[in-house]
Design a protein that fits this description.
The chain has 8 helices and 10 strands. The chain is α/β, with parallel strands linked by helices. Bound molecules: adenosine-5'-diphosphate (ADP) and magnesium ion (MG). Adenosine-5'-diphosphate binds next to strand 2 and helix 1. Keywords: ATP-binding, Nucleotide-binding, Transport.
Amino acid sequence: MSVLKITDVSKIFAGPTVAVDNFSLEVGDGELVCLLGPSGSGKSTLLRMVGGFERPTSGLMTIDGDDITQLPPERRPTGMVFQSHALWTHMNVFKNLAFGLKLRGLPKEQITEKVEAVLELVGLAGYGTRGVNQLSGGQQQRVALARSLVLEPKILLLDEPFASLDQHLRERLREEVRDIQQRLKITTLFVTHGQDEALAMADRIVVMRDGRTEQIDRPDVVYREPQTPFVAGFIGTMN
Ligand code: ADP
Ligand code: MG
């Protein structure tokens, strides 16, 4: 059963630039799909449209059959983590996570309970009173992930969340995120231009170019039979 359904979605910016070109995709319940492609291939624009931060020029998006195409971000059952974490640096970790729950009017005890549970999940138990600025880059991205997860979205949207981190930390975090994603069985769209990341994390990979799908397959198939120069070139360098 597909949870997220994207049908014939396009985004044309002034210029005109066709950032996303008649793109369709169905993502199954609990599935992690990686959008992989070179810079400028439309990955972020697509993700931002699913999150509601950008309006499609045309097309339709549904979640569990409900049309979300025109909904503002806060009314969508989606949570997004951006490349730069965009945490509120003047608030401590707890307040960053509690903010969205307060807006939803949850009672204090429930907020505390949920925040503590999600901090535990991302390996930051006991970090609630820390200032965001006192944390390492990796810890800040864990807080950003936690801030999305605490709102219990149906769909998690991750846009190159590890791009600013060093290789070693990236490898560790991608395993942590994959582990959390599988434990929560949360349907996820993960944007990256790192082939290694996509091959390691995804249930399926969508290789994008010029706003379109060049290949969509399981990672082992993309690895064995890359249909695109972008991926084939990379795999060539691994052998
Ligand atoms: P990716 O995330 O794959 O690098 P983007 O979705 O950011 O690609 O960009 C796809 C194309 O759309 C690029 O040509 C980019 O320059 C253009 N683009 C993205 N955002 C805007 C915008 N707000 N205004 C105009 N053009 C944009
Ligand atoms: Mg991008």
